[in-house]
Amino acid sequence: MALFLILPTVVQAQAPQFETGRLVIQTASGIRHEFTVERATSPAQREVGLMHRTVLDADHGMLFDFGTPRTVMMWMKNTPLPLDMLFIDDTGLVIRIESRTTPFSESIIASGGIVRFVLEINGGRSEALGIAAGDQVVEGLDDGR
User: Fold this and answer.
1) Looking at the domain assignment, is residue 121 inside a domain?
2) pLDDT in tens, 53-100
């Protein structure tokens, strides 16, 4: 009798590629902060985001663009870095910031209102730079702002 061992073929999914760009936030006091962002615009890119990343440079981040204003739900599943999530409406106004999210958490983080974008940066970076709800993205959104 012959014994056949059938091993499953492992196909590794190709990680999505992200375009990069510049994003500038101006605080209420007029100070401008520039970030280099990767843009997550497709469903596949938004699904992966910053998952599995162990390093994020100080002035880098991921900008999720949901295309149209809506209530957004995020989580930290498979994300080892604590992050600040800046929820931004379609005019570029920072509506809310969830600071220092918990790595690997599957708890839902809600936008708290209608937004189009979420900017993820290193946890605590918003506070360190003095960025708060009410501040404005003045450059780097899809329409040239």
Assistant:
1) yes
2) 999 999 999 999 999 999 999 999 999 999 999 999 999 999 999 999
Residue 117 falls inside a structural domain: yes
What pTM was estimated for this model as a whole? 0.88
Grouping H, G, I as helix, E, B as strand and the rest as coil, residue 125 is helix
Cα–Cα dist 16/118, whole Å: 18
Residue 103 lies in a domain: yes
DSSP 8-state assignment for residue 108: -
89 part of a folded domain = yes
CATH of the domain at 35: 2.60.120.1140
Number of independent structural domains in the chain: 1
**Residue-level length of the chain:** 145
Tokens describing residue 57: 């440079």
Q: What's the domain range around 121?
A: 20-139
The pLDDT tens digits for 88-116 are 999 999 999 999 999 999 999 999 999 99
* Of 74, 72, 61, the residue nearest 34 (C-alpha): 61
Euclidean distance between the first and final Cα of the chain, in Å?
71
